Amino acid sequence: MDIITIIIVAFVSLVIGIVIAIIITKSQADNKSKTIIKEANMEAENIKKDKILEAKEEILKLKGKHDKWSTDKSKEINRTQSRISQKENSINQKFEDLKKKQRETKQESDKLNEKLSKIEIKEKELAKAHKEQVTQLETIANLSAEEAKEQLIEAIKGEAKSDAINYAAEMLEEAKANANLEAKKIVIETIQRTATEHAIENAVSIFNIENDEIKGRIIGREGRNIRALEAATGIEIIVDDTPEAIILSGFDPVRREIARLSLHKLVTDGRIHPARIEEVVAKTKKQIEQEIVDTGKRTAIDLGIHNMHHEILRMVGRMKYRSSYGQNLLQHSREVANLCATMASELGLNPKLAKRAGLLHDIGKVPDQEAELPHALYGMKIAEKYKEKPEVCNAIGSHHDEIEMTTLLAPIVQVCDAISGARPGARREVAESYINRLKELESHALNFPGVIKTYAIQAGRELRVIVGAEQVSDDDANKISFELSKKIQEEMTYPGQIKITVIRETRAIAYAK
After folding, report:
1. How far apart are CA 413 and CA 419, in angstroms?
2. In sequence order, what DSSP letters do the residues of 103-145 get, joined into one string?
3. Sheet-wide strand order for 245-249
4. Based on CB atoms within 10 Å of each CB, which residue in 84, 155, 170, 363 is the most buried?
5. Is the C-alpha dihedral spanning 16, 21, 22, 27 positive or negative?
6. For 180-218, what is each residue's pLDDT tens digit?
7. Taking the complete model, does pTM exceed 0.70, yes or no?
8. CA torsion angle 256 257 260 265 (round to 10)
């Protein structure tokens, strides 16, 4: 057997083997697929049975729920039907009651109509009888009904008018009494709630120096330095034997302050001659002017007052260097402003506006140039010039009664100004002039007939006059009190007010022995 034959036999054998392997593999695959299909069918049957069982259970659950819902609905429907039946029965009962009431009402209405008919008949009879009586009364009194009615109305009017006058008088007296008490209460509370200072201002300033050698330098050769200083400041400079002190005398506090500061600068610098003096005084004046403006601004801020014109603020600052009877004008104005605010709050008015009027009430005392008008009127014109409110302007102008008061702020400012000026310690007077004023006050009362003794008490705020009971009657005592008050007003100058009390008493004296 040759090689080709062997190869052919081997190839055929290989092919046959492959075919046999394919057949066997196919047979195994068919068997396996059948097995898988069978298993899948069995699993599907099992799933189907499970699903059918689940569906049956769900159907049973739903059926149970439906049965329960149907049962509940049936019960609810039965209850509703029962309530409806009850309401129908109730409505029917009410309807029957209503019909019954309608029948009763109709019967009562018939009875009422019958009574009204009888009343109308009675009214006609009464009207007829009244007319006959009126006719008879007119015949007897010789007056018609209208004339009698008018006379009755007039009588009632007169009586009502008299009662009204008496009632109004009683109400007026009661209002006066209550108003007096309330006013005293408000004034006392206002004074108590305001803290104040005592007057310490005077007409001289003391400039302290380290040694007396500086006095010679201030005087200068032949007195030229001191003359230049007095000419530049307008202040009298007194250099005497007082150790380590120079006295600056002048009525204007601004000038005294300028002189004091200028002296301080000259002594500190050491160069003292007329040209230097003029230069230092000029600079000091500018410094004082700036300090005046700053003082006005600080005062307004401290009091809570806003939107004030620059020139008015400057005038407020100038008050710091003015005084009245020893009372610093700025301190007085601040005090009046606080008093006005307190009193306005007590009376239910605007405290800010009252405080503004109180601060500005004396700005007429610090004019840039001398004015012929009284300070109250001049201050009012300044306030009007710089667009202050009419209430504030009227309060400034009327606080000494130069013009009529037209607002409620005006009497408040006037009262608070009197309180600030008249309180103990507010103003300082020289002892001699104070004693002379008290003597003058007592002498005015001694000039009246029937006056026995006079006493000025409470620092001249009250004058008590004792009169003889045999010589002076009660009416005369009232007359003396009134005329004495008028005389004091016309002939004397004093701060605040003076109370005049005339005392008339009768004494019966007997002795038991």
Report:
1. 10
2. HHHHHHHHHHHHHHHHHHHHHHHHHHHHHHHHHHHHHHHS--H
3. 204-208, 245-249, 236-238
4. 363
5. positive
6. 666 666 665 565 555 454 434 455 667 777 776 777 777
7. no
8. -140
DSSP summary character for residue 363: G
Q: What is the pLDDT of residues 455-481, one digit of tens each?
A: 887 667 788 888 888 888 888 888 888
Sign of CA dihedral 483, 487, 490, 494: negative
Provide the CB-side half-sphere exposure for 23 (13 A, CA).
6
> What six digits make up the tokens of 406?
């037209």
Distance separating alpha carbons of residues 186 and 180, to the nearest angstrom: 10
Beta-bridged to residue 499, according to DSSP, are 462
Instruction: List all residues 6 or more positions away from 330 whose beta carbon is below 8 Å from its beta carbon.
Output: 295, 299, 316, 317, 319, 320, 322
* Beta strand pairing call for 323-324 and 451-457: unpaired
Rounded Cα distance, 418 and 106, in Å? 85
- Asked whether 464 and 427 are in contact (CB, 8 A), the reply is no
Q: Label residues 432-457 b or e (16+ Cβ within 10 Å = b).
A: eeeeebbeebbebbeebebbeebebe
pLDDT of residue 198: 40
Dist CA 114 CA 120 (whole Å): 10
Identify the burial level of 241 via C-beta atoms within 10 angstroms of its C-beta, where 0-12 means exposed, 13-18 middle and 19 or more buried.
exposed
CB 396 within 8 A of CB 357: yes
